[in-house]
Amino acid sequence: MEYVRDPLEIEKKSFEIIEGHVDRGKFDEKEWAIVRRVIHSVADFEYAGIMDFSEEAVEAGLAAMRRGCRIVTDTRMVEAGINRKALEAAGCVVKCYVDYPDVAAKSRELSITRAMASIMAAAQDGGGGIFAIGNAPTALFKLLELAEEGRIKPDLVIGVPVGFVGAAESKEALVASGIPYIVAWGRRGGSTMAVAIVNALLYMLKDENGKICRKG
Amino acid sequence: MEYVRDPLEIEKKSFEIIEGHVDRGKFDEKEWAIVRRVIHSVADFEYAGIMDFSEEAVEAGLAAMRRGCRIVTDTRMVEAGINRKALEAAGCVVKCYVDYPDVAAKSRELSITRAMASIMAAAQDGGGGIFAIGNAPTALFKLLELAEEGRIKPDLVIGVPVGFVGAAESKEALVASGIPYIVAWGRRGGSTMAVAIVNALLYMLKDENGKICRKG
């Protein structure tokens, strides 16, 4: 069968298609590198229209990564998708608390989602870091509650939970919170999108350091 | 903040919203259970219009699962998203070969994607099973080549790779192959979708067995 087999060629061709179809618009160069990787990951040009960044959000994320921050995810899918080599090169770690033994017990006890209980565990385990919420609106709501109470201090929140119940509202609450954010407005989002955003930030850091690393 | 915290209530509400917006249309009851879970996962009604099933695809998948088949995925994200409890209850296993030591070496040697090399490893490791391709069109192309050569005999292919380069074409090739399939036409798809389809099948099996298991 005839098809492109070289991973770098596939990515290059994909980025050319995106650049040919979508205008960079309001995004600066670094924001656009993130938006472009999201579009590449979901194969949907419309995502350019729903993405938004707080001022200096990208810089806040990069600064945290330069300090070797933790990246907290709400699902194991997001954890699994983050490029390990780029992560290690940055000296960062991914933490996903949903499978911690206490978390399931806590969620049953309180009749809350495991995602919420996992963010409570993240707060107990330290205050800062980048939070990549790609699945559960409840995780984002809980994060904002804990931040309001001063029990958690995110450097950046990647707020792209998905769903018909609460997703849009959770992002509006994030944008109103004053915490640096990258969001996708409305009900769309997802693990793939969260991963694309984290990896785009990690790749920027690699490029800064003059190394090249791409996921095959 | 005011939001729904109970995971079962969230899923119930979400399914009600979907049933209120999308007509079951051409899908039978089991196909619809799958389509509905996909829409729930991506929060996009349009996916009802791009999903397609070969005749008896669902039964082929369930029959393989009843035999405790392997479920081969093209990415660790899909592997991570599959419900472990439902998987274990079915006696099935998930196999993702992309991180196997030989796979990276083979992909570099041949200038092919790691996803392609992972499917070659899957062929060496046995012939059958359910293949859930949620990311790389090249993995689906390679799978079809190996099937044509008789080196792999999938019970069901969940063909939902995503992307601008080859995704649509790879699905057309799958549908023409005669292998039982579940696809999303065009360039859309993704890990989340592959996971939703596999989990929907596993939940059907659990319901058959009179047990209840849902991911929190």
The CATH fourth-level homologous superfamily of chain A: Cobalamin biosynthesis CobH/CbiC, precorrin-8X methylmutase
The helix/strand series of chain A, from N terminus to C terminus, equals HHHEHEHHEHHEHEHEH
Architecture per CATH nomenclature, i.e. the level-2 architecture of chain A: 3-Layer(aba) Sandwich
Given helix and strand content, the structural type of chain A is alpha/beta
Helix content of chain A: 40-55%
Shape of chain A: globular
The CATH topology of chain A corresponds to Rossmann fold
Keywords (chains A, B): Cobalamin biosynthesis, Isomerase
Family (chains A, B): Belongs to the CobH/CbiC family.
EC number (chains A, B): 5.4.99.61
Protein name (chains A, B): Precorrin-8X methylmutase
Protein described:
In chain A, 54% of the residues lie in helices and 11% in strands. Chain A is built from eleven helices and six strands. The first copy, chain A, has helices spanning 7-21, 29-42, 47-50, 57-66, 76-81, 84-90, 101-110, 114-124, 137-148, 167-176, 191-208; strands spanning 51-53, 70-73, 93-96, 130-133, 156-159, 181-184. In chain A, strands 1-6-5-4-2-3 form a six-stranded mixed beta sheet, with helices on both faces. In chain A, helix 6 crosses helix 11. The longest helix of chain A has 18 residues, at 191-208. Chain A is globular, with a radius of gyration of 17 Å. Mean pLDDT of chain A is 94; it is low at 212-216. Chains A and B meet through helix 1, helix 2, helix 5, helix 7 and helix 8 of A and helix 1, helix 2, helix 5, helix 7 and helix 8 of B.
